[in-house]
Amino acid sequence: MTNLAHAMGQFGGGGGAKGPDVQVIVMMAVIFAIFFFLLIRPQQKKQKEMREMLKNIKHGDTIVTTGGLYGKVTGITENIITLEISDKVRVRVAKNNVAVVTEKADK
User: Fold this and answer.
1) Terminal Cα-to-Cα distance of the chain (whole angstroms)
2) Given CB 3.0 to 4.6 Å as the disulfide criterion, which of 9, 64, 71, 100 pairs with 85?
3) Pairwise CA distance, residues 9 & 99, whole Å
4) What is the pTM of this model?
């Protein structure tokens, strides 16, 4: 019997393990909340703004691509934008490669 009592005392008995489990769950929830508000939510907001910017590009806007090309939009399809980077020099770029709209076209 003494061996059994010694083993029960060494491993915490039977009823004392519920308190730390709740603390671990609460701590994990707090860590998830911190990650959500500091990392996930701002990234989702930035992606939403980028989708809106790409959706609102119009003929005549001046943009910068992720590769560093500055140009004026002369044509738009669903996935491709045609840029005029110099007089009579046009390039086609994927719409997803637009980094910034620097100047909106006059309406």
Assistant:
1) 91
2) 71
3) 64
4) 0.64
In this structure, the chain runs to a length of 107
Evaluate whether 103 touches 62 at the Cβ level (below 8 Å).
yes
| Cα–Cα distance, 80 to 53 (Å, whole number) | 15
Residue reference for tokens 């909340």: 33
Mean pLDDT by 10 residues, the chain (107 residues): 56 55 92 92 94 93 94 94 95 94 82
Residue tagged 């308190």 (tokens): 19
Tell me the C-alpha to C-alpha distance, in Å, between residue 87 and each of 61, 81, 82, 84, 91: 16, 17, 13, 7, 12
Whole-angstrom Cα distance, residue 35 to residue 27? Answer: 12
User: Which pair of structure tokens corresponds to residue 60?
Assistant: 């005549």
